[in-house]
Amino acid sequence: MTEVERIGDELRRAWDGDPWHGSPLRALLDGVTAEQAATRPLAGAHTVWELVLHLTAWTREVRRRLRDGVAREPEDGDWPPVASTAPQAWAAAVEALGGAHQEVLAAVAELSERRMDEVIGDERSPALGSGVSHAVLLHGLAQHHAYHAGQIALLRKAFEG
Fold first, then answer.
1. Staple partner for 158: which of 26, 41, 141, 151, CB 3.0–4.6 Å?
2. CB–CB of 86/49 below 8 Å?
């Protein structure tokens, strides 16, 4: 298996596969209602909805970076606001995350092995995630998914318990 295939597999598992760390994001979001997604059961913590919008913004940004080779903040911002808490808006938010995920997988499949070591951005900025290779960026996206999946799992326990 090549590195490109390995990273693609890791990202697929994080969204709707069988990651070793627990449930994939898609499974964690299944059955969450708009009301639950907007609930803030832990003071100071993000809601499931906010996490989904954040994940979508950064997944889209990774896709754009693979295409353009330039590191920027996500177009919608780091933490896009929840504009509406209607059930249709929640369904659209989850669908947008799934779409962003499919777009990044398609971009990964187009990468050559030699591009995996290319660095995005000239200067290392941990906050912006610049100055790292395509491989580090993509592994970071999988780690980002796992981190927030854990938060979503805990939030589900809080509002279901």
1. 41
2. no
For residue 97, what pLDDT band results from cuts at 50, 70 and 90?
A: very high
Through-space distance between the first and last CA atoms of the chain, rounded to whole angstroms: 42
Q: Which of 43, 45, 33 is nearest to 160 (CA)?
A: 33
Residue 127: per-residue pLDDT = 83
With CA atoms as reference, report the closest residue to 72 among 121, 142, 138, 145.
Answer: 121
> Domains of the chain by range and CATH?
3-160 (1.20.120.450)
By percentage, how much of the chain surpasses pLDDT 70? 100
Instruction: Quick: pLDDT tens for 133-149.
Output: 999 999 999 999 999 99
Nearest-angstrom CA–CA distance, 38 and 52:
11
Cβ partners under 8 Å of residue 86, min gap 6? 34
Place of tokens 């929640």: 90
On whether the pTM is more than 0.85, the answer is yes
CB 24 within 8 A of CB 155: no
80 three-class SS: coil
140 near 132, Cβ under 8 Å? yes
